Amino acid sequence: MSDAAFLADPSPAEAADALRDADDRAVALYGACELAYDGRATSTLPVGRRHVLHKPDGTLLAHAATGHQPVNWLAPGATLSVSVEDDELRLHGERDGETLDCRFTHVSHVSLLPLDDADAEVSGTEDDLRERVLADPDLISEGFRPLATERDTAAGPVDIYGEDADGTRVVVELKRRRVGPDAASQLDRYVDALARDLHADAAVRGVLVAPSVTDRARHLLAEAGHDFVPLTP
Amino acid sequence: MSDAAFLADPSPAEAADALRDADDRAVALYGACELAYDGRATSTLPVGRRHVLHKPDGTLLAHAATGHQPVNWLAPGATLSVSVEDDELRLHGERDGETLDCRFTHVSHVSLLPLDDADAEVSGTEDDLRERVLADPDLISEGFRPLATERDTAAGPVDIYGEDADGTRVVVELKRRRVGPDAASQLDRYVDALARDLHADAAVRGVLVAPSVTDRARHLLAEAGHDFVPLTP
DNA sequence: AAATATATATCGCTA
DNA sequence: TAGCGATGTATATTT
Q1: pLDDT of B178-199, one tens digit each?
Q2: Looking at beta carbons, which residues of chain B come within 8 Å of A6?
């Protein structure tokens, strides 16, 4: 792969050439530009100083002064067109009917950056929580026996499906974070679906496993007769 | 605000000084670094070439070759500590019990970038959809009369609350995108809650407004007796 | 390609 | 501050 390269105060044509010669390098642009997105919604931004990053996978990110999120972007897979019109650098990204246009009134800096890809090994996810429950099923309730993970139902796959000490079928829904009403509804859908899958009169117990639960979710769980088991990943 | 500044091949100490002198400017670093995140989860990445952006609001973003999402990050509000140890630049970000450490084995480039903030005017949102329905309530059903928006219930605020041509109470839930089972459950919660708020025997009709629905969601709606109105923002 | 659920989601609003 | 829902959510997995 080519080396990193940096251009200070390039002309629009030089900036355009840099973008075209990027190969597998990411391109970071700094300058003043106007942004216009159209696709899932429509958004325009007046000229302002931004940091624009184009990755070799087509990702296009325009960052303003604040926030984790780019102020405008295109997801991976976009194709970029570069041109110079009226002595201005213009980027036109397109992907799946979405477009993002950047009109640079001034380009202050262009960097060509070889970046390494890397999958971060993340732990503390819902998968880890599941491993923990499977390793010690008594965490759910004394004598709980897991029978399957990702068991399919009409409502979708259930995190853990198993049996109580007294033979009652149990649906376990795992959440790594404090849960709200959505998780209670989700568990409810699974329990309903499983009860039908089995038999009209089959008793199915629902268990929500999470670090904690909001009041409203606790209420929903109680109403539906489901249990909550506090457990932190 | 200070001007933009660019440093090529800075020493670790020079890079650290640049970060400390950033004032209200964002700092973009390019080089090889090892990343370690700990907080809501745990993640480590071996040394690799990355693009790291630190914004004046504390946001810290580390980008690898692919993807919209940073490979590691801290949300706005983080505080950054900069140091040089073993002749290496080290960043330590901290926020609300979360930490992100960047150990640079080599810094190739540092930029100090004044960025403008900007709120993008976005159209095509759920708010726009609501305006459209309020302007032409017949879109819901012939003779529908909106009575309130964001009407509070025990389950949360309802998008639009109103009355049918025949006086039946109606709960309208708006979605700007194709909806799945979650939206059907949400509408169901609202309808249940409103029926209780009013009277035990009050009939409440649920209407989901969205461009389209998935099969499973359609089933859930049908089971609960709710209606679907196709409408694209 | 479509559907479904997760995420270190982030962001904005409201009580 | 916590809860709650929207987001141009992105991303992974499975069908």
Answers
A1: 999 999 999 999 999 999 988 7
A2: 6, 8, 109
